[in-house]
Amino acid sequence: TQLLEQSPQFLSIQEGENLTVYCNSSSVFSSLQWYRQEPGEGPVLLVTVVTGGEVKKLKRLTFQFGDARKDSSLHITAAQPGDTGLYLCAGEAGGSYIPTFGRGTSLIVHP
Amino acid sequence: KAGVTQTPRYLIKTRGQQVTLSCSPISGHRSVSWYQQTPGQGLQFLFEYFSETQRNKGNFPGRFSGRQFSNSRSEMNVSTLELGDSALYLCASSLNPDRGDETQYFGPGTRLLVL
């Protein structure tokens, strides 16, 4: 059983479209991180959300942490081909120091 | 500042062999974590080392081991390789002074293929 469930698993869209990726859990997380991983590279941290209900913006990317700190979403506005990659959410549940990653959402943005 | 480096980048081994992977963290970072990434299971935590001591361990068999040196460089070893050990092995470092900053910076990984 995956502690962090990501959906959708795959997403193929045209440039200019909007999209939302979800990261859900039945456990409470003290914080959640979002990473982007490109082929042949390690994940790169995009953002960390800490407070329930928190919203953070990074240019065209908007990250939200659920009020109960059990879920998070990533919204991309006007997607560009450069946004192509594997998006991963991660966190440490309930005081554990064991990092858990979702399986990721593979995004392809076609020009 | 140089990023996290991992060597080798690619490796082919046969079943039953053992392998050692190396990771050099960002200068000044004291914590090094290792992960296994496969298409089926995603990214899974192997273990974390801090100041030469294993601080946390994931749910992997004893064939997977690691160590950290006084300069924070780390190695992980997998003995008696199995086909299922084929994966991308990622190392991540963090500053982590008494857990004050846990942002992890990942290396490019070592892709291991077991035949």
What can you tell me about this protein's structure?
The complex is a heterodimer of chains A (111) and B (115). With 111 residues, chain A is mainly beta. Chain A contains no helices and eleven strands. Chain A has strands spanning 5-7, 10-14, 19-24, 29-37, 44-49, 55-58, 61-65, 71-76, 85-93, 100-101, 105-110. In chain A, the strands form two sheets. In chain A, strands 2, 4, 5, 9, 10 and 11 form a six-stranded mixed β-sheet that branches. Chain B is mostly beta strands and 115 residues long. In chain B, 0% of the residues lie in helices and 52% in strands. In chain B, strands 2, 4, 5, 6, 9, 10 and 11 form a seven-stranded mixed β-sheet that branches. In chain B, 37% of the residues are buried. The interface between A and B is medium-sized, with 19 and 21 residues.
Give me some keywords for this one.
heterodimer, A: 111 residues, mainly beta, six-stranded mixed sheet, five-stranded antiparallel sheet, 0% helix, globular, B: 115 residues, seven-stranded mixed sheet, four-stranded antiparallel sheet
Averaging pLDDT over every residue of chain A, what do you get? 92
Q: Which pair of chains has the greatest number of interface residues, and how are they split between the two chains?
A: A-B, 19 and 21 residues
Estimated helix fraction of chain B: under 10%
Mean pLDDT over the full residue set of chain B:
92
Rg from alpha-carbon coordinates of chain A: 13 Å
Low-confidence stretches of chain B: none
Q: Count up the helices of chain B.
A: 0
Radius of gyration of chain B, in Å, reads: 13 Å
The amount of helix of chain A comes to under 10%
- Give, in order, the helices and strands of chain A: EEEEEEEEEEE
Strand content of chain A: over 45%
Q: How far apart lie the N and C ends of chain A?
A: 36 Å
The main sheet of chain A comes to: 6 strands, mixed
Distance between the ends of chain B: 37 Å
What is the general shape of chain B?
A: globular
Number of strands of chain B: 11
Q: Strand content of the residues of chain B, in percent?
A: over 45%
User: What structural category arises from helix and sheet content of chain A?
Assistant: mainly beta
